[in-house]
Structures are given as structure tokens and as C-alpha cells.
Design goal:
This protein has 119 residues and is mainly beta. It is 3% helix and 29% strand. It has a four-stranded parallel β-sheet with strand order 1-4-7-10, with no helix packed on it.
Length: 119
């Protein structure tokens, strides 16, 4: 019913921890059997579990997914991770890591402003 009314495909067979937050959930698709931890945020037009049907993703506690994110099946997103908008996650992500891009890769902090040369 949620697929028709809200545009969200979130099957009853998904294990979901407390306080799942769906920001503008329209277009969100979560594969049957996926595991989603506590305090996870999913944004619109994201796909959790693209790929082979026998593999399911594991989204750990405190993860934030940006809009238009694709998480492939069989991937684990570690606790406290952030996945930038439009990222395509093809490999598991270590806890606390922020990933961006296609394919997703860790975001490195920019150098402190004091070390930027004068022009």
C-alpha cells in the first residue's frame, strides 16, 4: 500500500530499527530482507539493495543516506556513515566514513585554510 500511496517500496520483510527517518521518501526502494539499524535517515529516490536477489544490504545504526543514492546488494554500511547525494556504493563502508561519488569513495578532509598558499 505504501508503494501506491507514498511512492515508497518498503516491504514488510525489511528489518528496521527504531527511529527510521524518511526525508521526502518518494521514490525510495528498499530490497526485501534488507537490514536497517536504529536512527537511520533515508532521503528520496534512493535504492537500497540493487543487484542479485540472494544478497541483502546491511545499513548499521546512525547512517545518513543522501538523495538518489544506490546501495548495491550484499553491502554493509558501517555505523555512523554518511553517503553523499547521488553516490553509488559498490563496496562495504567502514564505520564513521563519509563516501561520495560514482563509484562511492571516502571523502578526505580539505587541508586547513592556514596551509593554502597565497596567490
Amino acid at each position: 500500500m505504501s508503494k501506491v500511496v507514498l511512492g515508497i517500496d518498503l516491504p514488510a520483510q525489511v528489518t528496521i530499527g527504531p527511529r527510521l527517518h524518511l526525508h521526502h521518501g518518494t521514490g525510495t526502494v528498499v530490497r526485501r530482507g534488507s537490514r536497517i539499524g536504529a536512527d537511520v535517515t533515508l532521503r528520496h529516490c534512493s535504492t537500497v539493495g540493487a543487484g542479485p536477489a540472494h544478497l541483502v544490504p546491511d545499513i548499521r545504526d546512525g547512517v545518513e543516506l543522501g538523495a538518489n543514492v544506490v546501495i548495491f546488494a550484499g553491502i554493509t554500511i558501517g555505523a555512523g556513515c554518511r553517503v553523499g547525494a547521488g553516490a553509488v556504493v559498490t563496496k562495504s563502508v567502514a564505520p564513521g566514513t563519509t563516501v561520495i561519488g560514482v563509484p562511492a569513495r571516502p571523502l578526505h578532509s580539505p587541508e586547513p585554510i592556514e596551509s593554502v598558499p597565497d596567490f
